[in-house]
Amino acid sequence: MNKLNIFVIDMNSSNNNFILKIDDNINIIINIHKLCNYKINKNIKKIINVITIYDKINNIHILFQNINCCNKLITQFHDILYKYNKKHNIKLFNCYDESINFINELYLYKDIVLDPNKNPNTYLQYVVSRVPSNYDLKIFSSNKSSSLFPLTTAVGMGSKYNSYFVHILPKKLLYTRNIYLIGKSITFDTGGLNLKTGDFSDMKIDMIGSGILISVINLLSKNNISTNYNIHTLIPIAENMIGNNALRPGMVLKTISNKTIEVINTDAEGRLCLVDGIEYALKFIKDGDIIIDIATLTGNTDYITSGISSICISNSKGEQLSNQLINIGENIGEYLDKIKIRHEYLDLLKSNIADIKNKNEEINSGCILAGVFLNYFVDNIVPWIHLDVASSVYKDDMINSYGINLLYEFIKQLE
Q: Which domain, by its residues, includes 146?
């Protein structure tokens, strides 16, 4: 049988060409020395064509020679080779343990994201199974009569499954400062009574925000990364369905802090669940703490970035941290574009019967208003960053690795 051998080398040579040699084996050599991200990507994409043409290949061997193998390159390879994993025997050599852990983690992440049959119960089982050994777990069942997490409960009222709120926290709080990571975890999003139109079979991926966070904390734990922060992961799990008990447009919900929200659109549900996470975190917040939320929140991001980057929004206290995160994204090829919150935006979410409404149907800038809505509840109490990754994580019916290395590197580099 033919073997596909991919050699990634870093040689100080003027010959940076893609080399393909076909004999008993098929050898592809990529010299990444002084190659920009675009050219590396271009060469990697050629591998897809080779795999497609030589469909009888059963083994893919990737050897990194003379290279300090970085996670950026690993993610680029993985996004291409993931769909061949079941068909081919893919082996990687000469990688550091950190990168091997990264590869294995990406398989787990992509498998759960693409699972079409998951629901709040099965996703909760996945979350429980992925808690690192040095972390504890608190699970709150957010059923129809629960008032602990009123917004997550409301979003899940149309589902036959309970909703849940999960807090993953270190067994030992070793530091004075904390990071609260909040991930959207809608296991399927129909839009609720504001039912989506067209093909929305891809809404099984609407828990990507929390999936990214679970992989990040596992990588930090497996690679023994020391930080100066206790890392808390908050995961509000719900299924947004239609039904006799479903959340209705026009209803007014009361939050944990007794603020009121007029629900204009039940398809703007992710931001409601994130508010539960924000207000839960605010109960424990101290000086020096940070809140970061990540979600596939609005399709509007794709109109702004065409999927090339994601959207970053922060309050003024989070400005410096968000700039650090953006710079990391530039270095690893996981881009973020920043949108400034202006006071005037909040006027667009005024309600006549509540403190705020969850959407303004007359405004097209959905991703901005979603960030403004979340910022209303943070209110500059603590540094806060919001990441809307809806445009970057899913392409051509395939999930990619965007976001995991971004947050992993950010937390690693925090002082």
A: 116-413
